[in-house]
């Protein structure tokens, strides 16, 4: 892209990741016709809109699209799609899933907000909007992080702040890209969870182990044991279960099962998780957050609200 180099030369941030996402969030709130000029909503034909070719999300759940289409057919598109001018028509910046569902609902027009984003801003928003909304599987999310690192010069700390997750979560996801393509494809297809995939990183033969995990229906903890044996051999010393950097197992004397549970919860929330327990079965779960945005994200996920 023409302005990628100049943005990287300025330190990579350009206008700032949070500023870009803040623009989208504000536009989606300005749904009234009397909204500000920059955020005013207008109706345009579905046929005049095209998806972004570098959209990071490649897998769309068909059943979920059908559910959204049914809701749109009944209530319409409540949240406008963010687009930019593209030739004589428009290109999606954020909201491709709503656009696809609107087509299934046989809508002729959809509400949009038109913004003049550059190529690099459009790509960054497409990546970050999907990450924040949890619209990507683990591999798609990892690839999105990698693109933001490689093409725009962002650091892992900047990405973590922008998507309200821990830096260790970002780092752990990036490690999944070290897996063979066959294993990555199994994560994309939903056959392997992130916890399974992370356990296979660094194994001598992750493809064979992944097949064994699938054929035997192994849990994440069982996968970690299997991968450890593969790394160290039948007589080797088993390494401790992999866990996000900085996450400690408190109050359970290194229990591998509790540590594995901490890892799974950390994968789900993208935050550090600490579990303590006592002999009578009682205990506590502690989530470490570093900003009010992260706290708000956790509250939304626990309450079932869509981010």
From TrEMBL:
GO terms for biological process: chromosome segregation; positive regulation of sporulation resulting in formation of a cellular spore. One of its GO terms (cellular component) is chromosome. CDD domains: SPO0J_N. InterPro entries: Chromosome_partition/occlusion, HTH_ParB/Spo0J, ParB/RepB/Spo0J, ParB/Sulfiredoxin_sf, ParB_dimer_C, ParB_N. The keyword DNA-binding applies. Keywords: Chromosome partition, DNA-binding. It holds the Pfam family ParB_C. The keyword DNA-binding applies. Residues 42-131 form the ParB-like N-terminal domain. GO terms for molecular function: DNA binding. It comes from the Bacteria. PANTHER family: CHROMOSOME-PARTITIONING PROTEIN PARB-RELATED. Belongs to the ParB family. Involved in chromosome partition. Localize to both poles of the predivisional cell following completion of DNA replication. Binds to the DNA origin of replication. This is Chromosome partitioning protein ParB.
